[in-house]
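Can't paste images in this forum, so I'm doing it all in text. The chain is below; anyone willing to post the predicted structure tokens underneath?
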Amino acid sequence: MKSYIIHFIRHGAVEETLRGKYIGTTDVPLSSLGRAALKKLDHENRYPGAQAVFTSPLKRCKETCSILYPEHDPIVITNLSECNFGEWEGKTAEELKGDADFEKWLAGDSSVKPPRGESNADFTRRICRIFEDIAAGVMKTGTTESVIVTHGGVIMTLLAVYGLPQAKPFEWTMDNGFGFSVRITPMLWQRDKVCEVFQTIPLPLDN
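Text version of the structure:
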């Protein structure tokens, strides 16, 4: 039976994250170091090919697409954006220390959300809906290999929900420019809504 491969890639590095700031929907560009690191990864490794490239609308993801997949005109999907951290955007954990809601949120309380932001539950619901829409779309159109360039939080959460082997979100942590490939088998997807995580990317040049 035909299967469908989707490659998840985390965008390149941004200055604010390196400083420990929470950057969700704040639209910051790649740092100069982030751009250079992506080009180096692309030169020394191999990113998988794709018939379609999907991306978060935020600059750091679209710029990553332009470096890694310059031949593609990516499909921009709003709901692939990172979690909205509301009033916590641009702040560090140290600056938020002592905030009771922040402490609960860090501990994984899905009902707590940043002021003017998005709860973990709402974030998970949003990205799961869009991933299921993408999965349905690639199967309907026969797109057997595609790429999603998005954010670390998005990838970790989706793999924790749908990925086999089963693992917690933090177990799917990846560096900027890295990611995972999943294989969707229609019968298994329709029955159990799960997909096989089968490799990390980028791949060695000799692979």
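The first helix runs from residue 15 to 18. The two ends are 24 Å apart (CA to CA).
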